[in-house]
Design brief:
By secondary structure, the chain is mostly helical. It contains 13 helices and no strands. The protein folds into two domains: 160 residues, Tetracycline Repressor, domain 2; 127 residues, Up-down Bundle (Four Helix Bundle (Hemerythrin (Met), subunit A)). The longest helix is centred in the last third of the chain and has 31 residues.
C-alpha cells in the first residue's frame, strides 16, 4: 500500500459517503453550474420544455465532471497533501488504498455515460472536459505546474465548456455561433479569475516548484495581468452586444465592468492581501455579466 495513504489498522476498507463527498468538493461545483445555467438561458429554449434534461445537465457540469476533476487532482497531489494538508480525505486514510484513483475513474466514466445520453455535442464537450481534467493533474502533463496552461484548462472547463454544454443540452445540436463566441470570451476572462486563486499559495507553490503566475511574474505583475485578462473580453462582449442590437444588455455589462474597474484599483494597491477580497467581489460582478450576456442572446433568439 502507498505509504502516503497508509493509515492504522483501524482504517476503513472502503471510503464513507461523507469522505467521498468531501473528496468531490461540492463548493467547487458552483462555477460550472452557473456557466451551464448561462448556456441554458442563452439557448432561447423555454426552460419548462426541457426541465428534466436541464437537471441532468446540472448534475453533469457540477457533481460529475467537476467532481471528477477534484478527485483526480487530490489523487495525484496525495504526496504533497500528506505533508501540507494531512487531514484531507486521501492522506488521512478516510479514502483508503487506491480508492481515490478508483473514484476519479468511476466519476469520469459516469460523466461520459450521462453526457452520451444528453446528445452528441454534449458528449464531445464532456470528453474534452474530462481529458483536460486528467491532463491538469496527472503526469506526464501536469498542466497545473504552469500557471499559463493550468489556468487555461480550468477556465475552459469551468466557463466555456459548461456554457456550451448548457446550450447544447437545450437545442440538441451545435449551439449558435454567438453563444459559442460568448462562451469562449468568458473562458478567456476566467483565466484571470484562476490567477486570483493562486495568490493564496505563493510560498507553497514556490517551494513545490509550481510555476503559478504570481510565482513567475511576481504579485504586482500577476495582479495586473489578471485584471487585464478579465476586463478585455468583457469589453469585446460589450462591443458585440451593441453590434447585435442589444444596447440595454450592453449597458448593464458596462456598468458591471466599471464597478469591477473601481474594485481593481483597490486590489492592485495590495494584490497579495486583497486577492481573496477581489475574488469575492469583482468575480461576482463578472459572473453576473455572464448571465446578462446570456439573456441578451436569448432576446435575440426570440
Amino acid at each position: 500500500m502507498d505509504r502516503t495513504i497508509s493509515s492504522s489498522s483501524l482504517s476503513p476498507e472502503r471510503p464513507s459517503l461523507s469522505a467521498t463527498l468531501e473528496l468531490l468538493k461540492p463548493i467547487t461545483w458552483f462555477a460550472p453550474m452557473w456557466a451551464f445555467g448561462c448556456g441554458v438561458v442563452s439557448s432561447g429554449v423555454a426552460v419548462t420544455d426541457r426541465w428534466l434534461v436541464i437537471l441532468a445537465g446540472i448534475v453533469l457540469a457540477g457533481p460529475l465532471v467537476c467532481g471528477a476533476s477534484q478527485a483526480v487532482n487530490d489523487w495525484y497531489d496525495r504526496h504533497v497533501d500528506a505533508i501540507n494538508e494531512p487531514d484531507r480525505p486521501i492522506p488521512s486514510g478516510r479514502i483508503p488504498g487506491r480508492w481515490g484513483f478508483y473514484i476519479a475513474l468511476i466519476w469520469s466514466g459516469l460523466s461520459l455515460s450521462l453526457a452520451a445520453i444528453l446528445g452528441i455535442w454534449v458528449f464531445w464537450a464532456a470528453v474534452f472536459g474530462v481529458i483536460l481534467a486528467w491532463m491538469y493533474s496527472a503526469p506526464p502533463f501536469r498542466l497545473k505546474q504552469n500557471g499559463w496552461w493550468g489556468n487555461s484548462a480550468v477556465a475552459i472547463c469551468y466557463e466555456g465548456l459548461a456554457w456550451f454544454t448548457g446550450a447544447a443540452v437545450m437545442v440538441s445540436t451545435l449551439p449558435d455561433s454567438k453563444i459559442i463566441l460568448l462562451a469562449a470570451l468568458y473562458s478567456v476572462g476566467a483565466h484571470g479569475i484562476m490567477t486570483l486563486n493562486d495568490f493564496k499559495a505563493i510560498e507553497g507553490d514556490r517551494k513545490m516548484g509550481i510555476r503559478s503566475l504570481p510565482v513567475q511574474l511576481g504579485s504586482v505583475n500577476a495582479a495586473r495581468l489578471a485584471c487585464i485578462v478579465m476586463a478585455a473580453p468583457q469589453l469585446i462582449v460589450i462591443s458585440l452586444l451593441l453590434s447585435w442590437g442589444a444596447p440595454v444588455h450592453a449597458g448593464v455589462v458596462s456598468i458591471l465592468l466599471v464597478a469591477q474597474g473601481i474594485l481593481m484599483i483597490r486590489f492592485l494597491k495590495a494584490p497579495r492581501e486583497r486577492a481573496p477580497w477581489y475574488n469575492a467581489t469583482g468575480t461576482t460582478l463578472y459572473v453576473w455579466g455572464m448571465l446578462i450576456s446570456a439573456f441578451a442572446i436569448r432576446s435575440m433568439m426570440g
